Structures are given as structure tokens and as C-alpha cells.
Automatic annotation (TrEMBL):
It catalyses: L-proline + NADP(+) = (S)-1-pyrroline-5-carboxylate + NADPH + 2 H(+); L-proline + NAD(+) = (S)-1-pyrroline-5-carboxylate + NADH + 2 H(+). Belongs to the pyrroline-5-carboxylate reductase family. Catalyzes the reduction of 1-pyrroline-5-carboxylate (PCA) to L-proline. The keyword Cytoplasm applies. HAMAP family: P5C_reductase (MF_01925). GO terms for molecular function: pyrroline-5-carboxylate reductase activity. Its EC number is 1.5.1.2. This is Pyrroline-5-carboxylate reductase. The gene is proC. It comes from Microbacterium pullorum. Coiled coil: none annotated. Pathway: Amino-acid biosynthesis; L-proline biosynthesis; L-proline from L-glutamate 5-semialdehyde: step 1/1. Pfam families: F420_oxidored, P5CR_dimer.
């Protein structure tokens, strides 16, 4: 049986922090998790989860510091621009040996270490939203003081919500353009396929069912078969058939270049965020 994780705090349990929280609760591996949100309304939604203490900062202004002091792993889930102030707020309350993990896009390990001190173990993470259903991909990069044991522990935390890819920090932003933003690309493709179905006369419910279940079924087949996507595509694409004709049109649109340009644009924005713009 996998051993329990130490006490965890999630400061800013919004979209991503909340996804990680629900994965931890579902796994049963985190018996003590303290989370913070700005409003009582948001905090109330997390009350009652097993092992979770939910703090509303509008009621407890020092809630972040209290949460940080209660934990051995502290996840920073606030918006990137709020990170430096939050780190200054909690720096004096961290226990010796606490691991601090960033969920914030574009904020470097150097920023964390400059505020918390170079002796604090810092890791950058980049989860994606399918973490909410245990199907996430999380990129993980260790800072200068993070040991192999620290990284292994945080890896185990994120494995409660899906797969983990360990990368050097200089690859985190690039990873974010693939797995971090990637669910949005998939949802956009589903939207467009649904619209194509509607244009061919199908009602909204039928169009959604066909498009969404096709993506769900295709990815399930990919996972179960162990085959390369290109091989599965070839199996569907009969010579001189209808699928071959459709795939040719998609290839003529230069999807490879389109995805390269899209992910390059995302990477450029990540670098802008890191520069504070």
C-alpha cells in the first residue's frame, strides 16, 4: 500500500489548485489538506471534503500564513502577479524542510528563491485541467535546493491526478504550450466538429454526442491499444475511401505548421508573463 503524503496546503484553491485538491481527496493519500480562497462563498464549496480544512481569507486575513505553517508541502495556486506578495506573506511561517511548489505559469524558481531564500526547496509544476478527473499531465521541475527525495515526494502528489513528466525548468514553459494549454486545443477541435455536424443537418444533441464521443472513444482506443496515433489513423483510412479524402483536406491545411505557430504563440506569451508584462 502506498504511504500517505505529509500535510499539504494549497494557497489559492481555484481552478488548478482545486483540481489538484480533488485528486488528492479522491486518492485518500493526503489525510490533512488546508486550502485558502479569497471569499467565503468559494471556501464553503470545499468544506466537507474528507481531511480538508477550508479557509476564507475575507474572514481570516492571516489564513495563508496559518495554512502554510500547517503543512510540509505548500502549493502556490494564486495568479502569477500575486505570487511575490504571497511569498513575502508566508516566508516567515514556513516550517524547516517545507517544500514549496508553484502552480503559477511564468513565475520562475529564481523568483521564489529570491523571496523565500535559497535554502527552501522549490519546485515548478504545470498541471492541466484534466487533473480534475485524474487524467492530468503535470510537468515538474526542481529548483536549486530541491533534492531527489523532494522531487519524488511531489511527483507522488501529482500522480494522484494523472501522469507526471520531469523536465528542466527551462522546458516548463514549452511543456505548458503542449499539455498545459492542450485541453483547450482539443475542446476547440470538438467544437468545430460539432459545428460541422450541425451544418449537415443534425440537431444539437446528436451533433454533440457524435463529436464528443468520437474524441472520447478515439483516445480510449489509443490508450488501450498501445499503438502509435499514426498507425491507428492508417487503420481508419482505407485507400481511396472517404476518410482518406477528408484527411487529405486537413493535411492540405498544414496542421503541422498551424500547431507549431499556435504553440510558439503560447510560448511567447509565457515568456512575456515571466518578464512581468
Amino acid at each position: 500500500m502506498t504511504s500517505a503524503l505529509p500535510a499539504v496546503a494549497i494557497l489559492g484553491a481555484g481552478s488548478m489548485g482545486g483540481a489538484v485538491l480533488h485528486g488528492l481527496v479522491r486518492s485518500g493519500l493526503a489525510p490533512a489538506v488546508t486550502v485558502t480562497n479569497r471569499t467565503a462563498e468559494k471556501a464553503a464549496k470545499l468544506e466537507g471534503l474528507a481531511g480538508v480544512t477550508s479557509i476564507a481569507l475575507e474572514n481570516e486575513p492571516d489564513g495563508n500564513a496559518r495554512a502554510a505553517a500547517s503543512a510540509d508541502i505548500v502549493l502556490i495556486g494564486v495568479k502569477p502577479g500575486m505570487v511575490p506578495d504571497l511569498l513575502r506573506e508566508i516566508a516567515g511561517d514556513l516550517r524547516p524542510g517545507t517544500i514549496v511548489v508553484s502552480l503559477a505559469a511564468g513565475v520562475t524558481v529564481a523568483t521564489f528563491e529570491s523571496i523565500l531564500g535559497s535554502g527552501v526547496a522549490v519546485l515548478r509544476s504545470m498541471p492541466n485541467t484534466p487533473a480534475l478527473v485524474g487524467k492530468g499531465v503535470t510537468g515538474l521541475a526542481g529548483g536549486t535546493a530541491a533534492t531527489a527525495e523532494d522531487i519524488a515526494l511531489v511527483r507522488r502528489l501529482f500522480e494522484t491526478v494523472g501522469a507526471v513528466v520531469e523536465v528542466p525548468e527551462d522546458q516548463i514553459d514549452a511543456l505548458s504550450t503542449i499539455s498545459g494549454s492542450g485541453p483547450a486545443y482539443v475542446f476547440l477541435l470538438i467544437e468545430q466538429l460539432t459545428q460541422a455536424a450541425r451544418a449537415k443537418g443534425f440537431d444539437k444533441a446528436s451533433a454533440r454526442l457524435m463529436a464528443e464521443q468520437t474524441f472520447i472513444g478515439a483516445t480510449a482506443l489509443l490508450e488501450a491499444s498501445g499503438e502509435e496515433p499514426a498507425e491507428l489513423r492508417r487503420q481508419v483510412t482505407s485507400p481511396k475511401g472517404t476518410t482518406e479524402r477528408a484527411v487529405a483536406v486537413l493535411q492540405e491545411a498544414h496542421l503541422d505548421d498551424l500547431f507549431t505557430r499556435a504553440t510558439d504563440a503560447a510560448l511567447a506569451r509565457a515568456r512575456e508573463l515571466a518578464a512581468g508584462s
